[in-house]
Amino acid sequence: MSNSIHRNTPSLAAFDPRGLIVRNIEYHRSRAQVEPQVRIHRQVFGSSGLMIEQWDPRLLQLSRSQAGTQANQRTVYSLGGHALRIDSVDAGWRLTLPGEAGQLLEEWDGRGAHQAHHYDQYVRPVAVFEQAANDEQPLCVERLAYASRSDEEAARNRCGQVIRHDDGGGSLFHEFYGLHGGVVQQTRRFRQASAVLGWPLLDVQRDVRLEPERFQTSTGFNALGERLHHVDAKGNRLEYAYGIDGQPASIFVLPTGGVRTQLMGQRRYNAAGQVISERAGNGVVRTLLYREADGRLRQMSARVQGPTSTALQDLTYDYDCVGNIVRIDDLAQPTQWSSNTRISSASVYEYDTLSQLTKATGRETAGNKGGPALPARVAFGSTDDSVWRRYTQQFSYDAAGNLLELQHVPSSGTGFTRQMSVAARSNHFVPQADGSAVPGLGQDFDRNGNLQALEGDHGMGWDVRNQLVRITQVLREGGNDDEERYAYDATGRRLLKHRVTQAKGVVHTAQVRYLPGLEIRHDSATGEQLNVLNLDVGTLTVRVLSWDRHPSGGRQDVQIRYGLSDHLGSSTMELGEQAQLLSQESYYPYGGTAWWAAKSASEASYKFIRYSGKERDASGLSYYGFRYYAPWLCRWISPDPTGDADGLNVYAMVGGNPITKVDKQGLAATPALEQPRQMQLRRLSISRRLALMERVFRPRIQAGSSAAIRDGLSTYISNTLWTGVDLAVFNTLQPTAQRNQILRITVAVLDAVSTAHMSTGIAGNWTQHAPQIGALFAGAAGMGYAVYGDSIGDQAEHSWDPVAVQRLGGHVRSLSRELVQQVMRGHGTGVSWGSTPLRGRVTRTAGATAAYALATVANAVYGGEVPVLMQPNVSPAIEAYDGAMGTMIRGGHPTAVHDPHGQTLQLPDPVATMHGGLSRMFNQVWTHWAASGIEALAVALTGLPVAAQGRMTRNIVMAARGMISALTEWRGFFVQFARGGYSTLATAWRRAPRPN
Fold it and tell me: Of the candidates 91, 336, 657, 889, which lies 20 to 30 Å from 438 by C-alpha distance?
């Protein structure tokens, strides 16, 4: 362990007083012999707690030596917390204008592009206008239409739903909706190639810009919303069946003009819901084994079912302690020898302390240069051992995660080193070349961070939405360029790929139209018209090929190609309907093809899916759905559309760990092999459990601390105020019988008012006669104190009535404390009950009462032993403790609301102050009489006056009085109950008939 690269490399987090993480500290080491390097990520938060700056370790370090260095990302927010402007050193700036309902109205970016969103009276989007910097006027790139309320629309479940959506590729019509709100039948019409993008307002004018052909797709669902069947635009039908556990069990296909065929069946799952076996339609059985300790994949094999049970694929996986894959071995592949070197099928990986891949070994074909082009295809059955060789790749990164250098060392032949030139103050990159300028916004990248060219003159064009719309592969002066163009729908999904090439004075076009579950391919060079039905069934992929016109000119039967993939979803093997091998491929860690083989050139031409299960375009780019990836550069060619969701380096591929992680759509990295949920929880390390506890308890502790400050300080202030009143009145004025009587009447009135307030509100939940009940209780409280005053007569003529003074002090402190609490209610964070019903508050309130009793009972029994100078601090300390414990206990309720810090000093809410103050005064009333009753009971039981009672008796009595004080914790509960009663009374009074 002493030689481990992970020694002395903890991960640390620094919090500010608000509990916000302002520093993330990591330690990087790639070799055990070197000292770890600190990597500090910095976050800056504004006064409202919103993040306004983010720094990666590289730019943070640079800012210490070079003034003017900008943060990776800066954000400006509206008063409502909406991000208005985001300024990124990689993606430029973007300014957004939200509407009153939070909807996006307008957007501007660093390229001078402008986007405007229009809405109807129901705040539904109806149009999107875009204007590039060089456009004379904005163009309508989207229009949406909605169904009206009618019986005809109701029969289609379309009332209020989108029925037509015109986008960049054409128009999409939604004919039917299902019961779950999903579209069950839709039709796509493509925009004519000659039609300029810009949708008129009238349907008729838009229709003339569309191609006449309609592509209709329909889907059927069961009552649970599970897909039962799918019919694509060419009439191919897929049928799905499910097991009793609701998991997919089998899939059938009925191609147009073909026969019904089972594509997948006999799928079995373990108790954790992981697939353990399934059978493809060609008889190949896929088996998956998992590690018992953590549920990670241990072995994935595929065999042809039969007497010989031939293994086609047998992948075994080994992991390090944190779950990184360190070895993959395909035991189904034979070991070969070349130049006295053992060429095994094993791939071995090494990582640094940040889980970035630093070294990889594997197998490749000789002469592979790792560029955008595919290496030479290997013929099946080749006996030439010199075709194969082992390779070692080593990777080095900077502090921001940019890949700086890739060293490729083969076991024979010449290797290569690819170095990247990275901008000093951003993550922009280009392959390093002599005399090349430093990349950046406006240099090799546009103002939104999109790469402008791949290799040499391979220029690229981007639309306003930062979608790649053109890439030039051959630039000709005075002639047609070889290029590919792309069109997308409103969600950003690619609809059309149109490639133009020139050969011997003839212009050829190759086109792919992407429809739900279907690709329609046409090639003018061969005359081929091909339909490809795509199906991804987990560990298997299926491609059903049917020809409207075959290149040979003759009739061609439907061909079904079954694909085997690895843990990343990369297509490693294609099989025919009889399990015959059609193609095979292996990949470098970052996605380039290390070697591939095919049965024939014809079969090879139909291999569309490659690394990570994505389509490889003619440019060498892989299309992921929201972005394009360059495997030979190991980078994305445009910033992450989600911003910083996957880290501050918006070009890095899966955080430098392409073996263990996968990016399914070009948005964010996810683990390639997900562990079962119960395994994840069971295997949490102590540090992770502590981190989980920290995330759970930190907000409660923060809110509890704020409550302690508010309660303790308000108690101090109210006590100080009463001390001032006591000194100004009762230590200045001479007591008389008349003044004592006025004092008692004042206390009796305050008792009556507070009692009437609470009793009326509580009774109002059941009866409209609550005011009379409140008056009855108020009279009883007032008369009770009047009787007490009469009982002591004139014995207090020459001194102030101590009980009346004490009672008045309680009322003054109650009112003043509530007033201070209202003024300070914005200090720090807080926890409120929100919409939690009263019944749901009982358990937590009882727990808070028990916690409060620990302090009140101890104070009642032992408070007399506290030194006199310390006694003024006792009650504020107890109230601070009560505020903290009550808030933390309340904060654990699932429906409690954590209120953020607001303005520290605020004007008091009159209604809340009235209810809070009177309820605190009522606590003074009932606790006084309850304590008096306990004292009277003790006298009656012992037959002794208070002064003559024993120590144990007094301790019991004082403990009981402490419990009485603890019950005041229910004040908030009954205040809400009383306020509900007042609301009920107000509603009843408003509905009552008024006299004429």
Answer: 657
